[in-house]
Amino acid sequence: MTTHTTSTAPPSHRRKAGKPKAVKARATGNRRTPGSYAVLAAVAVFVLAFLAPFIVILLNSFKTSADFRSNGSLSLPAQWNWSIIAEVWERVGFTQKLFNSIQISLGVVLIAVLLALFNAYAIGIGRIRWRTPFLIFFLGVNVLPQEGLVYPIYYLFKEMGLYDGKLGYTILVGITYSAFGTYLLSSVFASFPRELIEAASMDGAGRWTILWRIVLPMSWPTLSVMCVFFFVWSWNEFLYPLVLLISNDNQTVPLGLSVMQGQYTSDPTAMSAAALLGIVPMVIFFLIFQRSLTRGMTAGAVK
């Protein structure tokens, strides 16, 4: 009688035997290809090209005029001159300009977002009549150049007594930006789930309740992106405040920094320090709201 014996390895031995293949597969999957290195190199070049102007501004903001003339704009400061920042701050009156820009930009964001929300709710969800002509109108407002509107607006502000006033300027820019917000939100609300609206209506919710309790929370990612863009656009506006805000007490940061450049004289170090003062608030703003901006853009892409 022949007895056949079969030796079977324990499960632990079998798992151990399979590990090298898995490790090898992972190592092969993580191996970089020449194409990936090329992409990394292209990204590095793009980042350096993007940061180069800011690095030059940062270096020249702390140089003396003699150091700039002797060593050029690309050298490190021979001695870090921190007093030039304070001199530019006092010369420009940066405290008042900074307060004006923050006040105006926040007002523009509030007006533009509210108007865009109401308009888009009526067009995208309410399905009002002549929806397409309204959308074409708002799109046309977005493509009109500022140069073609500035003089009619100037005379209109003169007649209405709004000239050289922060309130009138804030309302103007807010209404202008709301056209873009309306066009953007209308396309988002057009694909809004109708089942939610119908279910809320059957439960007795009115239009205002649907707007504030259902539409607004679900649209907040898009609204947060709009808030960031509107704030940055309003902060960087130059032509409208140049024409409509002429007094020193009402001017914004870009206008205040423009006084550093004269027709026949210029100080590169002072101009660099002024540019640095104008950049720092925007950098701080993006560092604070970068998470909201990223979440909003990601949510829009996923949707």
TrEMBL record:
Listed InterPro entries: MetI-like, MetI-like_sf
Superkingdom as given in the UniProt entry: Bacteria
Keywords (A to Z) from UniProt: Cell membrane, Membrane, Transmembrane, Transmembrane helix, Transport
Region (Disordered): 1-29
UniProt feature, compositional bias: Basic residues: 12-24
Domain ABC transmembrane type-1: 98-289
Transport as UniProt keyword: yes
Protein name: Carbohydrate ABC transporter permease
Organism for this UniProt entry: Streptomyces arboris
